[in-house]
Amino acid sequence: xxxxxxxxxxxxxxxxxxxxxxxxxxxxxxxxxxxxxxxxxxxxxxxxxxxxxxxxxxxxxxxxxxxxxxxxxxxxxxxxxxxxxxxxxxxxxxxxxxxxxxxxxxxxxxxxxxxxxxxxxxxxxxxxxxxxxxxxxxxxxxxxxxxxxxxxxxxxxxxxxxxxxxxxxxxxxxxxxxxxxxxxxxxxxxxxxxxxxxxxxxxxxxxxxxxxxxxxxxxxxxxxxxxxxxxxxxxx
Amino acid sequence: xxxxxxxxxxxxxxxxxxxxxxxxxxxxxxxxxxxxxxxxxxxxxxxxxxxxxxxxxxxxxxxxxxxxxxxxxxxxxxxxxxxxxxxxxxxxxxxxxxxxxxxxxxxxxxxxxxxxxxxxxxxxxxxxxxxxxxxxxxxxxxxxxxxxxxxxxxxxxxxxxxxxxxxxxxxxxxxxxxxxxxxxxxxxxxxxxxxxxxxxxxxxxxxxxxxxxx
Lengths: 236, 214
Hints:
A: alpha/beta; globular; B: three-stranded mixed sheet
């Protein structure tokens, strides 16, 4: 019987190698898999390329992973916010690389990777500096920019409910990039608030089918980045 | 001395130009105020890029759900009939031309409809684009709400944007504290003046030629 359950976040991330490309689900604090990220900090893999919409907040979660010197490059759409300080400081010192990608293009590049489509044309960035050096082509008299797929070795994801086969549901806007990242990574690692038996999720309600998921860890009472920041916490 | 429109009045004026039943995406800042001025008898459905249609107002502190945010990363609510979806679907709505109106703030708008609202391009500035470039290319109608000039009095409506573009030739109408200004094939044209504001006031504070109301 297939059972993708792992017993701890530490075990689930234990083989992430140095230099891996890691997608991390979430949009700001919403949907951020904080326990998996902290396990990756404990694990210590370095030289990582991280793909996320943002660069984390405060000194927990993604910001803590960056602050711990484990990330050499960020691929994101919006690297700063009112509470991000770790990334901006390292970036200004030239100690971390940044690839800026418009949010919709970021989502579609990830989706394309999962869907086996190596590149696609999009109108986004036409006529801007972000289109410089990229192949362009006209379709029906309008210009489009060629964008490549974006794959990863690992995806770290937070779900609401998971079953042993890896079928997932998400809660509200914490879904964001998660279903796309599950498709685009070689190994998708999920922390789930609820772990249910087979049949515990109505097949009509499955958001991410289990074929896209490799490992599941139950984290019944996950911490939330905003709560940790409000409490002035840092990690480790 | 011109009086002009307040931020709320600018938002209310923009809301007048959004048809009933529109799917609407609102940028951060003054555009967010549009929700407070929906004209009587109309319904707008709000889209937020991070994955929801049917976004409602901010919750009371005790009612807030940590998994329910808008694209500005503020806590919001979901109205009856709301839907959640992932980012590829959300940006399919945007890029695919399914969103009717987007109301954005800006740093500059040019007479040909170019908009610059994502980066100053200054050395040391951290570029942060988010969904702005997708929105301006994909949404059917792009409105801008902005003060007519910067805090230091520089025109924000200009002949050519000096900041890096978000998108070329995409803006159709601009709502400022002084006037409603259309982007036409002949450049800026005043559609309506705010109370107490003259056409000459608008021309003087605009960095490009402005045509008088038709």
